[in-house]
């Protein structure tokens, strides 16, 4: 299978006026115009994997594989805005806005978000693969736990220390 950025795609969230969102989406398209990340993915690995695979147009590019049942847990991306495209499979994104709402991200669905975005991405199906771009570079992630209907900060991970 060859991975390409969809020329017609469904953006799951409306595009806002933050130019970093566009930088991230453009970086995904540029990366996929010259690379096939699916060519090197091990779809049999039993745990979720993530790897920074490059930097394009001012954005970090990360490849994530999602075995069935894997998830990120509630987190944000520090000050980075971003975008990701589901290259294979289907993912469910739960977004926190005071309550959790869910969206299904089918193959070729593109999700854009700003630096205030808190979410949990889950694979409820068969193995999935997604490509992510973050602008500026992903330097920190805040982790949260849902406790009595509220998200509470559990940790702040720094690039180079935890990933």
Automatic annotation (TrEMBL):
Fe cation binds at residues 75, 77, 119. GO terms for molecular function: ferrous iron binding; oxidoreductase activity, acting on single donors with incorporation of molecular oxygen, incorporation of two atoms of oxygen. Keywords: Dioxygenase, Iron, Metal-binding, Oxidoreductase. The keyword Ribonucleoprotein does not apply. The keyword NAD does not apply. It comes from the Bacteria. Belongs to the cysteine dioxygenase family. This is Cysteine dioxygenase type I.
């Amino acid at each position: 299978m060859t991975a390409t950025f969809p020329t017609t795609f469904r953006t799951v969230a409306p595009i806002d006026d933050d130019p970093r969102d566009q930088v991230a989406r453009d970086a995904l398209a540029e990366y996929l115009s010259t690379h096939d990340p699916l060519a090197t993915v091990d779809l049999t690995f039993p745990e979720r994997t993530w790897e920074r695979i490059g930097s394009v147009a001012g954005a970090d590019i990360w490849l994530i594989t999602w075995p069935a049942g894997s998830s990120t847990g509630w987190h944000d991306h520090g000050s980075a805005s971003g975008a990701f495209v589901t290259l294979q499979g289907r993912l469910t994104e739960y977004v926190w806005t005071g309550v959790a709402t869910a969206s299904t991200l089918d193959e070729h669905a593109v999700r854009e978000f700003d630096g205030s975005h808190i979410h949990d991405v889950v694979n409820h199906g068969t193995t999935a693969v997604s490509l992510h771009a973050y602008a500026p570079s992903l330097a920190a992630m805040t982790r949260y736990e849902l406790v009595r209907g509220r998200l509470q900060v559990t940790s702040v991970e720094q690039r180079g220390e935890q990933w």
